[in-house]
């Protein structure tokens, strides 16, 4: 069993009957959804809130019942992947471009579990390029601002065209190497007009499940 499968499978065990579940996005969440689909077939009653078109498609193919986020005010548990996680359980997300919906879902979740393979653990965030979702209108001005700050921005592309998120925005990836003050960086990005969302997810995850050779490691966020 690979590490992603191990972490995804373990996380699905935390889902209880009657829960509303935030369904993250990505290749690790794929394995969680496979296991959840199995449990639903065996009679588990849940409602899933999807964070991307790809997760919606996968959940539907597995007969996992979905509910629109607009019909609820609170999610019991969200299970999502991450691109990098530090010891404080702060992370970078958005490698697959789903950061905006993932953050909206996270913001109304009572509990958040992240599932990762061991390569995602880092001492400090920033080796993974930080995704910033921007409005196409004015995006080149934002890009040049990042350039001036020395953040080596690049527009994310898909087959030579701009990568477009599920909500119709562009993504600019920033090479920050090491983010010394994640809170400061997050609030700086929050303050830039035209930035819709960024991939710094701080103080959000309650629990981290890491796939490891000897079995899944469970790490709680220090409160
Ligand atoms: O936009 C994508 C999401 O934030 C994913 O959860 C993240 O990129 C991790 O994905 P994966 O499990 O495929 O590495």
Word description of this protein:
This is Ribose-5-phosphate isomerase A. Homodimer. Catalyzes the reversible conversion of ribose-5-phosphate to ribulose 5-phosphate. It catalyses: aldehydo-D-ribose 5-phosphate = D-ribulose 5-phosphate. The chain has 223 residues and is α/β, with parallel strands linked by helices. It has two domains: 3-119 and 202-212, Rossmann fold (3-Layer(aba) Sandwich), CATH 3.40.50; 130-194, Alpha-Beta Plaits. The chain contains six helices and 15 strands. The protein has helices spanning 3-12, 27-41, 53-61, 99-107, 139-148, 182-190; strands spanning 20-23, 47-50, 77-80, 84-85, 91-92, 112-117, 130-134, 154-155, 157-158, 161-162, 170-174, 195-198, 200-201, 207-211, 217-220. The strands form four sheets. The chain has a six-stranded mixed β-sheet, with helices on both faces. Strands 8-11-7-12 form a four-stranded antiparallel β-sheet. Strand 1 (20-23), helix 2 and strand 2 form a beta-alpha-beta unit. The protein is globular. The mean pLDDT is 97. The site of ribose-5-phosphate has 17 residues, from helix 2 and helix 4.
- CATH architecture designation of the largest domain: 3-Layer(aba) Sandwich
The biggest beta sheet reads: 6 strands, mixed
Spell out the helices and strands N to C: HEHEHEEEHEEHEEEEHEEEE
Radius of gyration: 17 Å
- Flag low-confidence runs: none
Fraction in beta strands: 15-25%
CATH topology of the largest domain: Rossmann fold
Describe the global form: globular
N- to C-terminal distance: 32 Å
Determine the oligomeric state from the structure: single chain
Number of H/I helices: 6
Q: Overall mean pLDDT score?
A: 97
Please, how many domains? 2
Main sheet strand line-up: 2-1-3-6-14-15
Helix share bin: 25-40%
